[in-house]
Amino acid sequence: MEYQERVNFHAKFEPEGNYVLHGTGQCDVFERFRSYERYRESLPDTPPIMTIAFIGLYNDIRYDMFAGLINTHIHSYSENSYILPQIGVEFCRGETPGTNYEAEIADGKRDEEIRKLMLAMKTIDRPVYMRPGYGFNGEWNGYDPENYKRAFRRMKQIMQEVHCENVCLIWNYNPAAREKDYMKYYPGDEYVDWWGIDIFQTPEESAPYAYTFLEDAMRHKKPVMLGEATAYRYGTTYEGWHKWFISYFNYIKTHPVIKAACYINWDWTQYAKWSNWGDCRIESNEELLKLYHSELSAPIWLNDTDRQKAKRLLRVSW
C-alpha cells in the first residue's frame, strides 16, 4: 500500500508539501531522553526529527531548567540536525483524577505558571509543538469539557501576550477513552493550530472514532499529529508487527490529513502502572526493526537529515 498525497492547510509549522514529521519519545525524570537516543541509534539512516517531553503547570517547577534540558538534548547532535520538541502539558498530576486543575487555568489562577512556561519556550530556537491537556477526554484525567475549553483558550491568550511565536498548539484526543464526543471539548478553530490523536489500541479497535476524528479534522482544515503511539499489549513481536504496526502505518498511508506521527519507544513492562503493555522498543527485535526501517525510508517521511530543508518546509526564517 502506497502513501496517499498529503493535504496542505498551511497551518503553523505544518510541513509544506508531501511530508509527515517523524517523531519518537518519550522523556521521563529517570531516563531523560535515552529512549529517543536508543531509537535514533537503531535508525541511523532515518533518524526522528521530533522528540517528546512532558510537563505540568505547578508553582514548584523550574521551567527554565526544563527548557534547558530540552535545549541541551536538541543541540547535542550534528550541526545539520534540527530536532523539534513536542511537549505534552498535563492539566492534572500524573493522570490522577481529582488532581485536575483545568478550572484553575480557566479562571486565570495559573497564569503565572503559563507565562513562565511560554517564556522558557522562547529560549528554544525552533518550532515547539505543544499539546495542552492532552488526552482531554480521558477518564484518567477527569477534565470538565467547558473548563477544558476555557483553559486551552487561556493558554493561547497568555502565549500571545508574551509573544511566544515559536509554539503551536495541538488539541489532542484519545479514542480509547470512554468519552467519545470530542467536539464538546473543542476550544474553536481560532485557538487550535493542529489536531492530535493518540494511537494505543489499533485504529480498527478504536473504530469508528479514530476515523471520524480525521474526517472532522479535514473539514476544519487542521493537520493531524499522532501525538503518542505505541504497540499496546502486542509489543515488538512478530504478532505485534502483523496486528499493530501494519495497522498503524496503513492508518497513516490512507489518511492525507496526518502530517506528523510520534512512536513511543519504551519497554512498558518496566513500569508497574503499564506493565501489561509490553516491550515496545523497536531495537529489541532485529527482524521487526528491518520492516520498520523500510517503512520510514519512504520519501514522505521528514527525518532529521537536512536542517535547511526542514526549516524551509516548516517556513522557519529564524
Describe the protein's architecture and organization.
The protein is of the alpha/beta class. The protein has a single domain, classed as TIM Barrel (Alpha-Beta Barrel). The chain has helices at 34-42, 63-74, 102-106, 111-121, 145-161, 209-220, 238-253, 286-296, 307-313, and strands spanning 20-25, 50-56, 84-90, 128-132, 167-173, 194-199, 224-229, 258-264, 301-302. It has an eight-stranded parallel beta barrel, surrounded by four helices. Helix 7 (238-253) runs parallel beside helix 8. It is globular, with a radius of gyration of 18 Å.
**Strands, total number:** 9
CATH evolutionary superfamily = Glycosidases
Mean pLDDT: 96
Give the CATH topology.
TIM Barrel
Roughly how many Å apart are the termini? 38 Å
Q: What order do the SSEs take from the amino end to the carboxyl end, as H and E?
A: EHEHEHHEHEEHEHEHEH
Q: In CATH's first tier, which class applies?
A: Alpha Beta
Strand order of the largest sheet: 1-2-3-4-5-6-7-8
Q: Which regions have little confidence, pLDDT < 50, spanning 5+ residues?
A: none
Describe the biggest sheet? 8 strands, parallel, barrel
**How much of the sequence is in beta strands?**
15-25%
What is the overall number of helices?
9
Q: Please identify the oligomeric state.
A: single chain
Shape: globular
Rg, nearest Å: 18 Å
How many structural domains does the protein architecture include?
1
The residue fraction in helices comes out at: 25-40%
What structural category arises from helix and sheet content? Answer: alpha/beta
